[in-house]
Amino acid sequence: MVELPATPSMASRVLALAMMRGLRVFGGVVRPGSTPLRIVREAFDALGRTPLPRGTKVKPVTAGGVPGQLVTAREARDSGRIMLYLHGGGFVCGSPRTHRQLAARISASAELPVLVLDYRLAPEHPFPAAAEDALSAYRWLLSDGYQPSQIVVGGDSAGGHLTACLLADIADEKLPMPSSAVMLSPFLDLTGAELASRDKALRDPFVPPDYAIWCGTAYAGESVLTNRRLDVLKVRKRGWPPVLIHVGDTECLRGDSERMAESLRRSGAYCDLRIWPGQVHVFHWFAPWLPEANTALRQIGEFVREVADEIVAA
């Protein structure tokens, strides 16, 4: 079992300080929605232009009518398993390009291909567009011959919300559940009820609460945030598969992860919640130079493989 470090590394401290003085300051000056979204998306998309780890293969796919990219690391095995990954970006940004670096590292650690879905973005395509795209892709995987025991679902930030919504939709549709789920720094309470108070007690180096709340509102569109597919913390979770949650203890979103873990455990589901000391929002992005990111990715792989081994043994 991968153990969490007791204290943050020097690299983590430097990263948090740099974000506090850079991205967080910028996020506090630019009012939510005031910057043309096209510019923000293009800047975010530019992050995906860095070279992928050696041996990584990327293949365009269409999953149930939804485009995406199948990212396969050199270490991935031909085991018939796959991960459906729902990227972050506050529901308004992000794409397979922005997340294929992270997908490649998850693929290497978990030893399986990762399908990064290019779901529709808000505000042009508000709820339930992204949720419906995720469900369509999952149905496609089942129809394409994957057994539910071979499928892992996961996502970061807003993608964590879509992951939780997908599991609830699978239950509602009476489809077979995937083997496991992974949520990285999930953004789950779209009302942002706790964000300001948590940020006041411990300033988040990365995520401005008002921007997160704007993103949630942009995704919800004309739907009320109490809609059962949006209020994923309150949805019934009986029968959900084992869930791994990672969150940094600097995050104003930390409470979302803690409340999700509590909700899962009350429902009788297994949840492994890991709160990482000194880590920023989706710190996994900063592998390989951030030691905690490397450790976290290794733990994701361990979790996915252990669940798969238990299913085979059963």
CATH class: Alpha Beta
Strand order of the largest sheet: 1-2-4-3-5-6-7-8
Q: Write down the CATH topology.
A: Rossmann fold
Which regions contain 5 or more consecutive residues with pLDDT less than 50?
Answer: none
CATH architecture descriptor name = 3-Layer(aba) Sandwich
Q: What sort of overall outline do the alpha carbons produce when their principal axes are compared? A: globular
Total discrete domains:
1
- What profile does the largest beta sheet have? 8 strands, mixed
Mean pLDDT: 94
Quick structural summary:
This protein is an alpha/beta fold. Helix content is 41%, strand content 15%. The protein has helices at residues 10-21, 23-29, 37-46, 96-110, 129-143, 158-172, 195-201, 209-220, 254-266, 291-313; strands at residues 57-63, 66-72, 82-86, 114-117, 151-156, 180-184, 243-248, 271-276.
What does this structure look like?
This protein is globular. Strand 3, helix 4 and strand 4 form a beta-alpha-beta unit. The chain has 314 residues and is an alpha/beta fold. The chain starts with 9 loop residues before the first helix and ends with a helix. The chain has ten helices and eight strands. The longest helix has 23 residues, at 291-313. It has helices at 10-21, 23-29, 37-46, 96-110, 129-143, 158-172, 195-201, 209-220, 254-266, 291-313, and strands at 57-63, 66-72, 82-86, 114-117, 151-156, 180-184, 243-248, 271-276.
